[in-house]
Amino acid sequence: xxxxxxxxxxxxxxxxxxxxxxxxxxxxxxxxxxxxxxxxxxxxxxxxxxxxxxxxxxxxxxxxxxxxxxxxxxxxxxxxxxxxxxxxxxxxxxxxxxxxxxxxxxxxxxxxxxxxxxxxxxxxxxxxxxxxxxxxxxxxxxxxxxxxxxxxxxxxxxxxxxxxxxxxxxxxxxxxxxxxxxxxxxxxxxxxxxxxxxxxxxxxxxxxxxxxxxxxxxxxxxxxxxxxxxxxxx
Length: 234
What we know:
Blueprint: H1 2-15, H2 26-35, E1 43-47, H3 56-60, E2 65-70, H4 73-85, E3 91-94, E4 108-114, H5 122-135, E5 136-147, H6 152-155, E6 167-168, E7 185-186, H7 190-198, E8 202-214, E9 218-229
Helix pairs in contact: 1-4
């Protein structure tokens, strides 16, 4: 994760508020509107919160127990400044989500990942899924927006190199979407993600794919998946 931290500290350090979109992910908003909006007392955590673009809509809807974690010091600094200017407050945590241990008395009603967990290799991802399961309340929800192996960025990845059957060492082809992300970049087929979650105690309640043509030249497919924690003791 050191290369990810270095990349984003440099990105946010150089480009400040222009380093990342300042509007929420559309699929996350659909998830929020359908499953969370009516429960403002919910405890919600976003992994890789960046500039808090996905967190701000929750705060605008008077959610009080909103958390975000990010590995980049620059990201947390800019996000804190942004929330202050809006007179908003969230619980922002500087840390590596693969290692950070939340208070054993704290359980979330929802945990969200929007294109952040793809920087993990296969083993790191599996371990984090287990950690997410253990950090959710019974019936808690996990949302993820994740790159699909059906993307041309994966099927035609050279000169990038596969470091395992799902993970590239970065996006090195200049014509590829996300070119310049020089850190581990992982993809899954939709059925792979569904199986991974089901094998770790989740029930997948909704799954969709979203394809985008970048400049009408190349298709990039995303997986949008919602899963509910099932109590393994039942």
